[in-house]
Specification:
With 341 residues, this protein is an alpha+beta fold. It is built from 10 helices and 6 strands. It has one domain. 45% of the residues lie in helices and 9% in strands. It is elongated.
Length: 341
């Protein structure tokens, strides 16, 4: 339910707190990618006081799909979620580069910037959101009493769900990591906006940051448009309010970018030395901008820049809005990301 913002203690309690039993802990290994890293966790049983502590939910174009899971939670042992995320960066970056979404250009552009902290932080932020959206999978023989769902027509068909409360608690750790990263990235971008030589790095970082935020918005659009008869939504703020808050934040980033640089670098001749001097004569920056000039021309020709979220969103598919707000970095006239609740 995260829309990148501050920590909310009410949501945290409602989302992750249960009364653990005195049953002995069980060690379980989980993962997101079949050939990716494994996260080892300690679990114990708890007494469910509400069905939404054990029921899991998926949505697709046919609506809401529920299934019941066993009552297991984390024991409270410290989990190094940051290390796990770092190990997953390679997998999420590979997916992003291979996608057919126009934003893949900017993920590919991160290659020469493996030593630039803010670029790596943006990839890490994107990876964390990808993990929030992907299902946890059991990576060993211990499955906490869960079997593969075989129900015809269910969005859960063919899946062995991890217990709801474990998903909640691990998901919240990912959310908290995103909040911390987001603050660091915004501070870094603020500093770079004062240095015109950082245009290339700032453009790549902002494109990935805005893309992450538009996907985060996309996760909540379904909640804002349809009724929630089972009462799964527990955040104190309504989905529409969170979406609007995120849209305002994106507009602020776009405005600062436009006021600082605008699109002037895309209209310069980067074979000239006076242009190269604008980015400190840095070869990787010049090469990126030259590629970006051609890419933006292609995007404009194919109508990819400035498409509205409301026109592209497909129910249950946040990726459908994966180059909407982020595309506004390159829109020539005045622009503003629009809410579509």
């Amino acid at each position: 339910m995260l829309i990148i913002s501050g920590r909310n203690e009410i949501y945290e309690v409602l989302f992750t707190s249960v009364m653990r039993s005195s049953s002995p802990p069980i060690t379980v290994c989980l993962q997101h990618y079949a050939d990716g890293p494994i996260l080892w966790i300690q679990c114990s049983q708890f007494t469910a006081t509400h069905k939404n502590q054990v029921n899991v939910l998926r949505q697709d174009q046919s609506g809401w799909h529920y299934t019941e899971t066993t009552a297991y939670c984390l024991t409270g042992e410290q989990i190094d979620i940051a290390s796990y995320i770092q190990q997953c960066k390679h997998f999420s970056l590979h997916e992003a580069c291979r996608s057919r979404n126009p934003i893949s250009f900017f993920f590919e552009a991160t290659g020469p910037y493996t030593n630039v902290e803010i670029i790596q932080q943006c990839i890490e932020l994107y990876t964390t959101l990808r993990l929030l959206r992907r299902a946890w999978n059991f990576a060993g023989n211990e499955t906490l009493g869960m079997d593969t769902i075989e129900q015809e027509g269910s969005a859960w068909r063919g899946i062995r769900p991890v217990p709801r409360m474990i998903q909640n608690q691990l998901g919240h750790l990912l959310e908290l990591h995103m909040i911390t990263l987001d603050k660091k990235i915004l501070k870094g971008i603020q500093a770079m906006l004062r240095d015109r030589k950082q245009w290339a790095v700032t453009t790549i970082a902002l494109a990935i940051l805005l893309h992450t935020r538009e996907l985060d918005i996309g996760r909540n659009l379904y909640w804002s448009r349809y009724a929630d008869p089972a009462g799964f939504w527990i955040h104190p703020s309504k989905p529409k309010a969170l979406v609007e808050e995120a849209t305002v934040s994106c507009n602020s980033l776009l405005s600062h970018y436009r006021c600082t640089w605008g699109l002037r670098p895309l209209h310069l001749d980067w074979t000239l030395q006076k242009s190269k001097d604008m980015v400190g004569n840095e070869e990787r920056a010049v090469k990126f901008i030259q590629k970006l000039q051609k890419y933006v021309q292609s995007l404009e020709k194919n109508g990819w820049i400035g498409q509205e979220v409301g026109n592209l969103y497909r129910d249950g598919d946040p990726d459908s809005v994966g180059f909407t707000i982020s595309s506004l970095l390159f829109k020539k006239d005045c622009y503003e990301a629009k809410g579509v609740c």
